[in-house]
């Protein structure tokens, strides 16, 4: 089985297991609902950062594709860490808006860089 696929399944299983553990802990009164939500949603940001960290380690033929992959990886790592940090420390409305904004900003940086590479390749 592909190594990236195994890692993705491991993340999915861990998130589901932690969500179930959080629901059980909330039901037993160990944590409140906000804490369980913050932990599970914050894990999504860590997963985004992990995927960004894995991106440059895969082979891509072509210099422009490697450049685009490096920029996409950096933007995913940074936006995922910002997302996780906001869900860990910011009030929930700020975490929702700021976290979504961070991920959308990372996507915008990646798309913008890819478009700039494409326009540079067309002009050359």
Describe what you observe in this structure:
It is a single chain. The chain is an all-alpha fold and 124 residues long. 86% of the residues lie in helices and 0% in strands. It has four helices and no strands. The protein has helices spanning 3-28, 33-54, 63-89, 92-123. Helix 1 packs antiparallel against helix 2 (33-54) and helix 2 (33-54) runs antiparallel to helix 3. The termini are far apart. The model has no long low-confidence stretch (mean pLDDT 90).
Task: Write out key terms for the chains shown.
124 residues, mainly alpha, 4 helices, 0% strand
User: How widely separated are the two ends?
Assistant: 41 Å
Query: How many DSSP-defined strands?
Result: 0
Roughly what fraction of the amino acids lie in strands?
A: under 5%
Helix count from the secondary structure assignment? 4
The level of helicity is over 70%
Task: Evaluate the radius of gyration.
Answer: 18 Å
Could you state the order of secondary-structure elements as H and E? HHHH
Largest sheet: none
Overall mean pLDDT? 90
Low-confidence stretches: none
| Structural shape | elongated
- Estimated structural class: mainly alpha
Brief summary:
The chain is mostly helical. It contains 4 helices and no strands. It has helices at 3-28, 33-54, 63-89, 92-123.
């Amino acid at each position: 089985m592909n190594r990236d696929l195994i890692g993705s399944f491991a993340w999915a299983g861990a998130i589901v297991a932690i969500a179930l553990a959080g629901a059980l802990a909330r039901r037993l009164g160990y944590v409140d609902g906000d804490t369980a939500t913050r932990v599970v949603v914050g894990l999504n940001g860590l997963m985004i950062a992990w995927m960004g960290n894995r991106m440059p380690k895969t082979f891509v033929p072509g210099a422009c594709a490697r450049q685009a992959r490096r920029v996409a990886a950096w933007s995913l790592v940074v936006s995922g860490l910002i997302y996780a940090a906001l869900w860990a420390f910011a009030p929930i409305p700020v975490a929702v808006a700021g976290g979504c904004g961070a991920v959308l900003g990372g996507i915008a940086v990646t798309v913008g860089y890819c478009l700039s590479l494409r326009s540079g390749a067309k002009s050359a």
